[in-house]
Design a protein that fits this description.
Blueprint lengths: L8 E2 L3 E9 L3 E8 L4 E8 L7 H15 L9 E6 L5 E6 L4 E2 H8 L4 H20 L12 E6 L2 E7 L4 H5 L25 H4 L6 H17 L9 H10 L5 H4 L9 H8 L11 H12 L52 H31 L1
Antiparallel strand pairs: 1-2, 2-3, 3-4, 4-6, 5-6, 7-8, 8-9
Helix pairs in contact: 3-6, 3-10, 6-9
Length: 371
């Protein structure tokens, strides 16, 4: 790749500023997006592959799939397309920091607990991709970038999802994975045994590569001693990896870590961790000082954002009339018994009235007689 792309506009909204990386498949450039006031990275596939219509088609398909990945530990893809000269590209978030290979070279073997925390996050990103049918196929320390996000240190970002899947040659079992230029697609040091044999790959191939990366992070070495790429390929297929405790006997490792790494490096895919999520959970347990294999707490099933179906109202029986409370008579105080005088008084009054009536009648008879 030349620097002819520097200064060019892409899609009418990005201007390429400088080349920041290059490889056999193409180059990565830093670009600015003035309308959004941000920087982005643009990866451009080498024009030599334009003659391979199948590779161009698969590049587009994989870039489209990458754009749908939303895990925070996956590098976001904003746009994909082709330049005027036909070269394929995609625009992704611009990251500042160092990849894992640079960290190990600069600092030496990583603290095992720190490595477990970082790789557990990487497993989360891969689990989302695997569930979406995307296998990375070229996992290596250079493709895991450590940055700071939201004030969080050691925040990994997984790069180049699907690129090796797009660019690898169709292989026959036992064939070499070399181009005419002698370049290996897929990195031999981190290649699964089935990838080295040219077999069909699934998510468990990525899990093997994760095991090699974690091995190198905590020891500063690879699980095999070799000098040439072909030697690594043969050792992945035929040799058992050197245990962590033998590789660096001067270092101590948390309980369970060696078993977790060795299971990831099993020759047969069926003997490895069943998923990236399962491996990530084991690494989280080691980082938290828990025994590996402790069940994950079951989250509550109630989701306040999901509308639950409403139960139709049941017919309610008609209300029954309730008896009305009747007022109770208030007890009145009993009057005191009458005195003897009060008992005789009516008779005295009656007798006086009778005498008066008789006296009146006598006076009336006398008056009539004397007239």
């Amino acid at each position: 790749m030349t620097d002819s792309y520097v200064g060019r506009d892409v899609a009418g909204q990005f201007r390429i500023l400088q080349k920041i990386g290059a490889g056999g498949m193409g180059a990565v450039y830093k670009a600015e997006q003035p309308d959004m006031n941000r920087h982005v990275a643009i990866k451009i596939l080498h024009p030599r592959y334009l003659s391979r219509a199948d590779l161009v088609s698969r590049f587009r398909r994989e870039a489209r799939a990458m754009s749908h990945l939303s895990h925070p530990n996956t590098a976001r893809v904003f746009l994909y397309g082709q330049l005027d000269d036909g070269a394929c590209y995609f625009v992704m978030e611009y990251l500042e920091g160092r990849n894992l290979a640079q960290v190990v070279r600069a600092e030496g073997p990583m603290d095992p607990l720190r490595a477990c925390r970082i790789m557990a996050q990487v497993c989360g990103a891969l689990d989302e991709a695997h569930r979406g049918g995307i296998v990375h196929r070229d996992l290596k320390p250079e493709n895991i970038f450590l940055t700071v996000q939201g004030g969080i240190e050691d925040f990994p970002k997984v790069l180049d999802f699907g690129l090796a899947k797009v660019t690898e040659k169709q292989m026959r079992p036992g064939s070499m994975i070399l181009t005419r230029e002698g370049m290996v697609f897929g990195t031999p040091e981190f290649m699964s045994p089935e990838q080295a044999r040219g077999k069909t790959l699934d998510a468990r191939s990525d899990i093997y590569s994760l095991g090699v990366i974690l091995y190198e992070l905590v020891t500063g070495k690879l699980p095999f001693d070799a000098r040439q790429p072909i030697e690594y390929i043969q050792l992945h297929v035929n040799a058992e990896p050197i245990p962590l405790s033998q590789r660096t006997p001067e270092r101590s490792f948390p309980p369970g870590l060696e078993a977790v790494v060795m299971r990831a490096l099993a020759k047969e895919p069926e003997q490895r961790w069943a998923s990236a999520a399962e491996l990530g959970h084991a690494l989280e347990q080691i980082a938290n000082g828990q025994p590996v294999g402790t069940p994950t707490p079951t989250p509550p099933t109630t989701n306040p954002q999901v509308a639950l179906p409403q139960t139709p109202p049941q017919a309610q029986p008609a209300p029954q009339p309730q008896p009305v409370a009747q007022p109770q008579p208030v007890a009145q105080p009993m009057p005191p018994p009458p005195s003897p005088m009060q008992t005789k008084l009516p008779w005295i009054v009656l007798g006086a009235g009778v005498l008066l009536a008789l006296g009146g009648a006598v006076a009336l008879v006398v008056a009539l007689t004397t007239r």
